[in-house]
Amino acid sequence: MESIIEIATIKDVEPWAQLRAALWPHHSLEDHRAELNRAFLSENGEAIAFIARNAANEAVGFAEATLRHDYVNGCSSSPVLFLEGIYVRSIDRRKGIARLLCNVVADWGKSLGCVEFGSDALLENSASHAMHAALGFKETQRVVFFRKPL
């Protein structure tokens, strides 16, 4: 079964927000919808998202990317194409969908002159580490952030 990858549009907000909620459950669907409209549907040229669909036209995954002009850990160029989020439903994993999503994100970044593709994952998210490695990403740093209220 071949997956179809398309640029996400306003028609995708509901299934896209639901996929985001599966990846980031600590935010509500309303928060996800608002973020999509603000960051990825604003057409500012600095962010893009792609939706993966199966043969039944169901949204089964997404990838979101931005151009980062600030420092990206482990990178030396600017802007850097940055994978802000990627998710494929568990029943649709191991079918090459994440690879297809990353390939179209990479093509978008290259078309804008990017020469580096950055991403990150929580230290404890070994599944994400394995996925990144399988997609050709190389680990550059491990970081723990700290905060102290003033």
Write a concise keyword list for the protein shown above.
150 residues, alpha+beta, five-stranded mixed sheet, 4 helices, 31% helix
Q: Mind explaining what this structure looks like?
A:
- Helix content is 31%, strand content 21%.
- It is built from 4 helices and 5 strands.
- The chain has helices at residues 13-23, 29-40, 97-111, 126-134; strands spanning 4-7, 47-53, 59-68, 80-88, 117-118.
- It starts with a strand and ends in a 16-residue tail after the last helix.
- With 150 residues, the chain is of the alpha+beta class.
- It is globular, with a radius of gyration of 15 Å.
Lateral arrangement of strands in the main beta sheet: 1-2-3-4-5
Summarize the helix and strand pattern as letters. EHHEEEHEH
The low-pLDDT segments are none
Terminal residue distance:
55 Å
Helix content: 25-40%
Indicate the proportion of strand residues.
Answer: 15-25%
Instruction: Characterize the biggest β-sheet.
Output: 5 strands, mixed
How many runs of DSSP E, i.e. beta strands? 5
General shape: globular
Helical region count? 4
Report the structural category: alpha+beta
Mean pLDDT: 93
- Based on CA atoms alone, the radius of gyration comes out at 15 Å
What is the gist of this entry?
The chain is built from four helices and five strands. With 150 residues, it is α+β, with helices and mostly antiparallel strands.
